[in-house]
Design brief:
By secondary structure, the protein is of the alpha/beta class. Helices cover 63% and strands 10% of the residues. The chain has 20 helices and 12 strands. The strands form 3 sheets. It has a 6-stranded mixed beta sheet, with helices on both faces. Strands 2-1-4-5 form a 4-stranded antiparallel beta sheet, with helices on one face. A two-stranded antiparallel ribbon has the order 7-8. Helix 1 (22-40) packs antiparallel against helix 3 (57-111). It binds adenosine-5'-diphosphate (ADP). Adenosine-5'-diphosphate (ADP) is lined by residues 118, 354, 357, 364, 382, 384-390.
């Protein structure tokens, strides 16, 4: 053991996702500096004009107006394109980053092993892939402010210092106070925004779960139960959101009062007094006033940016945590080639416990030893919870044993790549799964290049050709939520046809007929029998009629093998098996 499902993954590990957007972002952000510089020039016009009017009104009419017109036009010509490309390029760069983020995140999820899907609910994975990526995308605006606003802040301060140093220092002291308050409030705002995201993920998980079991809720008329669960989670989310709304605004509104009301009055009183003393001209005070307006807008913008950015930052952190997840089942660095697989399987003293199981739960498999010959037709029976399905998942290498080994043709499964391994294996579960698409598409999941003739041959072999032919659109009939409705037996036969098309060396069945009536079972059994030819097969079945003809039957109980043999022998030698037979009339 000792394997962990987490690795280190920080923001900088996301830098490869910037591929294709680095240059665009760099140009965009540099233009942000030009945009800010152009804006910082505006109060200078007031200074120039008002000072000239106060000192020499004639010169203003003669030269000043023309000068202002020329310089103003020049600034406009620079400002407009700079602002446009600053916004557009930064947005495009960011959107490309988010696109890569989403695609890579999905690929990452696909690389996970089964344990990951036990740690995370479907709704939660959904929330990461959609809501969090969107929250990061919203960060584009914040990144723009983070470039533009500090640049304008610096330009404005330089200009102010040039006009009057003491007044600038007073303004700076007020700004520092505002900045400090912001820094103090930031961690709490970040934490609460994270709580909102967590609560929102939980709502999404519960909604997804209950939509999935809609039939069950209807059957028990317990829609109210589902509604209550969703309501409870939704209330918890509302509570978090209300808290964030209250505190975020308490903070931002106090800042506004400070910058738009208190500070301007201070500047006006001091500045006006200094004009009477001849220390400043009216134009200087006007320019100062303009710069304060700009500065306070910038500081407020930054405050909004920081508080709003917290949700993007929290989303990035959560995405990092998701990227840090790694599968417990990994491929070896140099996998052994799996040519000419014969399909012999061996379990050697296998002990296993599910990764997330509570420690007081005992191991699911306890020192299992089993050798299955290539081409053997094996059956697994035993009470539910004995560990039969778990054994299949270990052969599929969905999990690795805690100790001992599972071998294929004498080699540990861990020596092969999972891809090659899975190419040699196929499984049919109690309820077979199909995605929404045509029957043909679903069949080609097993072999993408299969032509119609190959698909029909597989359908024939699985006793499925007849009912597919009867569907109005044949192979083009759509399956899935709004598609053709197939019976349980038809679905199982289609799943078997898919295995014929895949043609693996080892096939496994986990309770393939448990949900079927006797007639459907007969059809499915016939198809299974044909599939077993020249392949190793392992069938877990509750119904002894499905497995009694197997070459060998293994009886499992409490994670161990308690007997093995053929049907007739076990009826006599194994009391547990005899009890099964007695309970199932006609076997
Ligand atoms: P069987 O197929 O014989 O009915 P299983 O292999 O499904 O038995 O289950 C064996 C034991 O493992 C049971 O006690 C079950 O509760 C436990 N188990 C099955 N799946 C999981 C899982 N994903 N996580 C934790 N425990 C599990």
């Amino acid at each position: 053991m000792g394997e962990t499902h987490q690795r280190r993954f920080g923001w900088k590990d996301m830098s490869p996702f910037l591929k294709g957007s680095r240059l665009i972002l760099a140009i965009g952000l540099v233009l942000g500096l030009v945009d800010a510089a152009a804006q910082a020039c505006v109060p200078l016009f007031f200074r120039y004009a008002l000072n000239l009017v106060q000192v020499n009104p004639g010169a203003f009419v003669e030269r000043g107006m023309v000068n202002m017109l020329l310089v103003g036009t020049a600034i406009l010509v620079v400002f407009l394109p700079a602002a446009y490309y600053f916004h557009v390029l930064t947005m495009i760069g960011f959107m490309r980053f988010c696109r890569n983020l989403q695609v890579q995140l999905y690929r990452h999820v696909l690389r996970m092993s089964v344990d990951f899907f036990q740690r995370y609910q479907v709704g939660e994975i959904n929330a990461r892939l959609n809501n969090d990526v969107e929250a990061v995308a919203n960060g584009a605006g914040f990144v723009m402010s983070l470039v533009w606003a500090p640049a304008l802040l610096v330009y404005s301060l330089v200009m102010m210092l040039w006009i009057d140093i003491p007044l600038t220092l007073i303004c700076t002291a007020m700004l520092v106070g505002i900045a400090l308050l912001t820094v103090l409030a930031m961690p709490k705002l970040k934490e609460w925004n994270r709580d909102v995201r967590d609560a929102s993920g939980e709502v999404s998980a519960v909604v997804t779960e209950y939509v999935g079991i809609f039939g069950l809720l209807k059957a028990y008329s317990r829609e109210d139960f589902a509604a209550m669960r969703v309501e409870t989670k939704s209330d918890a989310l509302l509570l978090q959101r209300e808290k964030v709304a209250r505190w975020q605004h308490a903070f931002t509104d106090s800042m506004q009062t400070l910058t738009r009301f208190v500070a301007p009055l201070i500047i006006l009183f001091i500045g006006a007094y200094w004009i009477t003393k001849g220390r400043l001209l009216a134009g200087d005070l006007a320019a100062f006033w303009g710069y304060w307006l700009q500065l306070s807008a910038v500081v407020q913008g930054l405050v909004f940016t920081f508080s709003g950015m917290m949700s993007s930052v929290a989303a990035m952190d959560r995405l990092c945590a998701f990227f840090a997840e790694q599968p417990l089942v990994k491929d070896p660095e140099i996998p052994l080639p799996l040519d000419g697989c014969r399909g012999g399987i061996e379990l050697r003293d296998v002990h296993f416990r599910y990764p997330l199981a509570e420690s007081e739960e005992g191991p699911v498999l306890r020192g299992l030893n089993l050798k299955i010959q290539p081409g053997e037709n094996l059956a697994l029976v035993g009470p539910s919870g004995a560990g039969k399905s778990t054994l299949l998942t270990l052969i599929l290498r969905f999990h690795d044993p805690d100790s001992g080994a599972v071998l294929l043709d004498g080699q540990d499964l861990r020596a092969f790549s999972q891809k090659e391994l899975h190419a040699e294996m196929g499984i049919v579960l109690q309820e077979s799964l199909f995605f929404s698409g045509t029957i043909g598409d679903n069949m080609r999941l097993a072999r993408p290049d299969a032509d119609d003739a190959a698909i029909w041959a597989a359908l024939e072999a699985a006793n499925a050709a007849e009912f597919v032919r009867e569907l109005p659109r044949g192979l083009d009939s759509v399956l899935g939520e709004r598609g053709a409705k197939l019976s349980g037996g038809q679905k199982q036969r289609l799943a078997i046809a898919r295995l014929f098309l895949k043609d693996p060396k080892i096939v496994m069945f986990d309770e393939p007929t448990s949900a079927l009536d006797a007639d459907s079972e007969a059809h499915v059994k016939e198809a299974m029998k044909r599939l077993f030819k020249d392949r190793t097969s392992i069938t877990v079945a509750h119904r002894l009629s499905t497995v009694k003809d197997a070459d060998r039957i293994i009886v499992m109980d409490k994670g161990a093998i308690i007997a093995e043999g053929r049907h007739a022998e076990l009826r006599i030698n194994c009391p547990l098996y005899a009890e099964f037979c007695a309970r199932q009339a006609g076997v």
